[in-house]
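Limitations
The structure tokens in this dataset are predictions for the assembled complex, not deposited experimental models. Users should treat interface geometry with appropriate caution, especially where small molecules or nucleic acid strands are included. An illustrative entry is reproduced here so readers can see what is and is not provided.
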Amino acid sequence: DGGITQSPKYLFRKEGQNVTLSCEQNLNHDAMYWYRQDPGQGLRLIYYSQIVNDFQKGDIAEGYSVSREKKESFPLTVTSAQKNPTAFYLCASRPPGSEGYTFGSGTRLTVV
Amino acid sequence: GDSVTQMEGPVTLSEEACLTINCTYTATGYPSLFWYVQYPGEGLQLLLKATKADDKGSNKGFEATYRKETTSFHLEKGSVQVSDSAVYFCAAERNTGFQKLVFGTGTRLLVSP
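Predicted assembly:
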């Protein structure tokens, strides 16, 4: 079955370390997205990519970086510059048209 | 910019009660509208959608009608079940330019037996 796989499900990081969250999709979707979810704040867009080798900053890109070397993969790096990285991170992809997004099951990042 | 406003929760109901979760949007033109559901510890799942005015989206007993005149897309269900307990997100997406979803803050629904 096609879908989006995010790994790991839980991730712990020490302050000052970079960490990379994986997102892989086998849906053949061009567009992919990273969202951050905090309690009571809904979802906020970090980065998005329309096609391979192209990506754009979202609303809260500071302290994050991404790459899109393959259509299937859109990894997110949380750098030490991100002041408050503890959150639930969701990756999504979408087909052309108005079919809505397909979401992964998320990665919960905790800074210890 | 575009925005989505939905009622704050939590909404607490008894099983078989009626549900309404309000959602209004502010957007240029006529966006596509969506309701997503999130169960504990999981990602979001598309519940239903509507792409133009007066469209009604429906799924699993949930319904929402795209009301252009009131810029609303309220989620309704006639009889909720315990298994409906989750967080519900309303979202809007422009139909021009590069599409990206704008989400509301989410409404937690708690259904007790």
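Some entries come with short summary sentences. For this one: The mean pLDDT of chain B is 92.
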